[in-house]
Design brief:
By secondary structure, the protein is α+β, with helices and mostly antiparallel strands. It is about 65% helix and about 20% strand. It has 5 helices and 6 strands. Strands 1, 2, 3, 4, 5 and 6 form a 6-stranded antiparallel beta sheet that branches.
């Protein structure tokens, strides 16, 4: 009887470990995908050119990011006051701005690397993972990934760099335009920023 109980206990423990492992794998997948793709794009940056990097970054964002959640965070309190058309237009432009920024900043490889992410906290529909971006000289930047569950998948909804939230930075930058001229002024500003990035990248 004791042997049977022991076997059942071991089996239950192994099943629990297996479930935790599968859960952590699902949580890590978007972060690993993001990190691995960034390094790959950096390595191929010169051959890809700006347009090629943008294409790869677009696929990356489509696959691993929760852009509706990012858009809501960036727009903040103004989001609820906007109509569907305004939200869609701003969401599209914020996506384009993110893609152009990534393609511009991650254009070449100099032996940088990412530390494999680890799960810090998780609930039914939210999770937080930590990692590091390590430069060639060994200087490391702490990264915190906030994830949201979208359907059956996890997606990245925010990245903090050294404790500073990326969506909070963008919200602070864009809030003044939303306050002064609403979505129309912010769309105009985003168009100008995207054009500037693309002009400097060529």
């Amino acid at each position: 009887a004791r042997a049977a109980v022991l076997v059942l206990s071991i089996a239950s423990a192994l099943l629990l470990v297996s479930r935790v492992g599968l859960a952590n794998e699902a949580l890590s997948r978007p972060v690993l995908g993001f990190q691995q793709t960034l390094i790959a794009v950096m390595k191929d940056g010169a051959d890809l050119g700006f347009a090629g990097r943008k294409s790869r970054m677009q696929s990356l964002v489509d696959e691993h990011f929760d852009m509706p959640a990012i858009t809501r965070a960036v727009i903040g309190r103004h989001y609820q006051q906007m109509g569907l058309a305004q939200r869609a237009a701003l969401g599209k432009r914020i996506n384009e701005f993110a893609i152009s920024t990534l393609a511009s900043r991650f254009s070449r490889f100099d032996n940088e690397r990412f530390v494999e992410p680890s799960v810090r906290a998780v609930t039914d529909d939210r999770a937080r993972l930590s990692s590091k971006f390590v430069a060639a000289d060994g200087d490391a930047t702490d990264l915190t990934y906030d994830l949201s569950r979208v359907g059956e998948r996890w997606r990245i909804s925010n990245i903090s760099f050294g404790g500073v939230s990326g969506t909070s930075i963008q919200h602070a930058e864009f809030e003044v335009f939303l306050r002064q001229g609403g979505s129309a002024l912010l769309l105009e500003k985003l168009d100008a920023l995207i054009s500037e990035i693309e002009r400097d990248a060529k």
